[in-house]
Amino acid sequence: MGTPDLAPASVILLLLSTQLSLLLPGASAGTYWGDVEVLKQLKNALDPSSVSPGSCVASWDFAAAADPCDALFSDKFTCGFRCDATDGSGASRLTELALDQAGYSGPLAAVSWDLPYLQTLDLSGNYFAGPIPASLSNLTQLSRLGLSRNSLSGPIPDSVSSLSSLGELYLDGNALEGSIPSSLGNLTNLTRLEVQSNKLSGELPAALSSLGSLLYLDASDNAISGELPRVLPPSLVQLTMRNNALEGQLAPETFQLASSLQVLDLSGNRIAGPVPSALFTHPSLQQLTLSSNGFDSIQSPASLFPESELIAVDLSDNRIMGLLPAFLAGMPRLSALALENNEFSGMIPTEYALRAAAQPAQGAARLERLMLGGNYLMGPIPGPLLGLGQGGGGGEEEVRVSLAGNCLYRCPARFFFCQGGDQRSAAECKSFFGPVIP
């Protein structure tokens, strides 16, 4: 009998490869063809002139033999995505698609987005335009969606609300219009929602109160109107809605229920009425910014020494009248207080001056920033501040104080806290107080 012919080397290698893929569950069969197709669609959707040499997408060479998920020793497919999962056939699957901020431009709607294993999609800091495609609903395992700082337009589609695993949603810095959809209340795993710097309007939907995991909400620099919802997510740590068109009054119960809140910024709106005392006795609030609204008074808490975590309070540029609230000087952690450009009157409490002059009560922080300019405060400058202005007990380099633009008896410019504007004229002060200035 003759010796049988040896099988060609290529056939042997193919058999060995097949046997290894059957014996080793983790063995890869290459990138799944559908995931490769999505990468091709994305590259083809880009304006070729926006794909600069050295960028991630420039290394995506589908004409080469390199496999996208297995190009460790190749100069192809060098960045822009990750493959950390395999499917039942052993094929590698895309789990992250995060492009560099290289100035890519093109429509996202030209991509099918059929990537069922994708967990992160981040296209931030580019020039993608057009609407947010409804096909993003295909990303069923997505936990982070970053489309910040692009040129996207149109509404926020309801399809985003079907991404039940979504934990972070970044849509800020685009040209999105319409209202924030109530359907976002279905994203029960959402911890961060950023939609600032768009053209959004309408009211902040009350349905967002059902987001029991939401920690951060930023909807600043839009045209959102109406009143702040009476119920906020109880988990909320930071709420920022500056520079919108919010109106009405703040309900005290809103902040009593949001017991985890640490940062509240509602500046640059049209909110009126009193500043609720609940904000000054809140168990966790540290930063309160309500400047540039229409507040006319401050509700004082029951105690002159409220238990408060507030570190910074900014109520400047409102229409608040009356005496400077004594309780503000009794908040132990307060180190920055801005009450400029209101209609406060009366004398500056000595307690304010002592806190600014590094002589606070035991355990209290120093008022390193005390801004009282642009009011109708009268009388003499408190003695502790005079010493501060002459260099005693710390000076301008340690504390910032402003008393300009009031009705103080004397406030010469040699004191740093009197600089920045003259005191009001006697005629202006008399017009405000009446015929007799106390």
Automatic annotation (TrEMBL):
Pfam families associated with the record: LRR_14 (PF23598)
Keywords, ordered alphabetically: Leucine-rich repeat, Membrane, Repeat, Signal
Entry-linked InterPro entries: LRR_dom_sf (IPR032675), LRR_R13L4/SHOC2-like (IPR055414), RLP29 (IPR053213)
Localization per record: Membrane
Annotated ranges, domain Disease resistance R13L4/SHOC-2-like LRR: 114-339
One GO cellular component, as annotated: membrane
Primary location recorded for the protein, binned into one broad class: membrane
Signal peptide positions on this chain: 1-29
Source organism superkingdom: Eukaryota
Metal-binding in keyword set: no
Gene3D superfamilies: Ribonuclease Inhibitor
The keyword Metal-binding belongs to this UniProt entry's keyword annotation: no
PANTHER family: LEUCINE-RICH REPEAT (LRR) FAMILY PROTEIN
Protein name: Disease resistance R13L4/SHOC-2-like LRR domain-containing protein
Species name: Eucalyptus globulus (Tasmanian blue gum)
Lineage: Eukaryota, Viridiplantae, Streptophyta, Embryophyta, Tracheophyta
